[in-house]
Amino acid sequence: MWHHTYNNKQTEKFMNNGNILDDFSEAKQIGNGRRKLLPWWIRVFIWFFMIAGVLVIPVFVMGLAGYSLQVEIYGLKTNRPISILGILLLLVFLLKSTASFSLWFQSKFAIKLALVDAYLGLAICLTTMIFPIVDNQGKMTFRPELILLIPYIFKLHVLKRDW
Q: Which pTM does this prediction carry?
């Protein structure tokens, strides 16, 4: 009546060796290897943005409650988390946090997501430098975030092939 044939490698390995836990240890070794690819300075920023991402929810709730909190990144800042700019900045922090969590937990898509985050950050940074939008009194200023964003993008492209 009901007949199903197993043809995948895990089943064959289990049937031949009887130890399916070997697959988990192999996956764990590959995963730990990915984290080891990350240089120390990227690991520092991963932790910073994981913490910042966790704080987005309380900041949003406090903004709903009427509190004035400064949210700032890449030259954009606001004292009102519940405004168009405030919500956009919180979304940027959520993206950075998601990219950081995916890098730390070695997701397959981590490098692609981190590159999207980095290029978005670069675009925002360059835009706020060239077109002073908030608090620059119309003066063009250098954004120090570029000092880390550009090497970060290059490093992500190098990691992409080994990830």
A: 0.74
44 shares a domain with 17: no
For residue 14, pLDDT over 90 is answered with no
- pLDDT at site 31: 53
Q: Which one, of 146, 138, 135, 137, lies nearest residue 72 by Cα?
A: 135
Nearest to 106 by CA among 160, 34, 24: 34
Find the domain containing 25 and state its range. 9-38
E strand segments, the chain? 71-73, 76-78
Number of domains the chain is built from: 2
Rounded Cα gap, residues 126 and 146, in angstroms: 8
Separation between Cα atoms, residue 156 and residue 111, nearest integer Å: 6
